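JOB MANIFEST
job_type = single_chain_structure
chain_count = 1
residues = 77
[input]
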Amino acid sequence: MIKMPAGLGMPGLGNEAVLEYSDSDYRILRQGTFVRCSVTGQTIPLQDLKYWSAERQEAYAGPEAILQRLRTESIAR
């Protein structure tokens, strides 16, 4: 996984947002147009953000990324 510094602009995407995730919603802490998937590093436009973990405070690009995170956690235990 490639981690870019928060807030680093991407040509054509704008700036990376910083969010605080709750169970059913999120709060924008720093304005931006996208977040990064915590598993893949893929950019996720805020209007497309559907998957996150309030417990881990992570965003996910899709269900496959969530499953990958859960698998790596179960292996580490």
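[summary]
The two ends are 21 Å apart (CA to CA).
Residues 18-76 form one domain.
exit_status = 0
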